[in-house]
Sequence to fold (302 residues):
Amino acid sequence: MTQALNGHAAAAPAAAPASGPAPDELERLAARVDKAVEAASQLDENGRARADELKQAIEAFHKAAIVQIVQRLKHDPRGKELLFELVDDPLVRALFAMHGVIRADMTTRVARVIDAVRPYMRSHGGDVELVEVRDRVAYVRLHGSCNGCSMAAVTLREGVEEALRANVPEIAGIEVVPNEPGPALIMPETIGVRDRLAGWVAGPRVEELPPGSLRRLDAEAASILLINTDNRLSAFRNACAHQGLPLDGGLFDAASGTLSCPWHGFCYDTTSGECLTAPQAQLEQFPLRVEDGRIWVRPSAG
Fold:
């Protein structure tokens, strides 16, 4: 094992300069990986199994080492500064993401899966909307031909569930939320059922938070930061993952979709809350919904 790893290291290309590889070099390296994966897929079943085991063994070895490196750097002021610079390099960032050192929160990953299956749903006359992710359960609302009891509707619902379970394995369950009741129906509060908006905080109207803007919303449970990035709304706890200081006075770059902390410069992706400065740091994201043109947020107590 050691001999094989030493041989692998000796065959590696020379270290790149501090500025990182040029975009065309990064593309070449990625293409080489894709070519190797494609070649492995052409092997017989036994060969594919051995190739996959080798791949997983090397990745596990590399991940353990990378996590150790990141943890040591984060706990040393000198290393932390270097780590902040490294994570901005596309190659290093891709490596961290591949090994799960940088990872989006569950709500963001579920939303990405929903966005991916939406074209298929619409091609069959339906649509799917993510309401919230709570206690590892994804709550979705189905529209059009998906919202019914036909075999087509069942197939589409199962397709959403299969995609979520395949891409977000931590999901414990998926619940379909019924469409909003019409005025002719008996409302829950009139029969003693808990208000469906219990725990939700009313925010501004959508037009009061135009694209490229952010707004602070103070609730009993938490201070909330509402952000509109190119018509994509997000809600986060108004606290930097570094020292918990408020972010509402930070620099919001709408073009790049980033928010920089006004205190120590930590930079975040405003759609996922992922910290672009420090691996494994993450803003706490709250469920958000728009109803009758008003933004509603469900914060959790800090």
Notes: DSSP finds seven helices and twelve strands in the chain. Residues 182 and 188 are 12 Å apart (CA to CA).
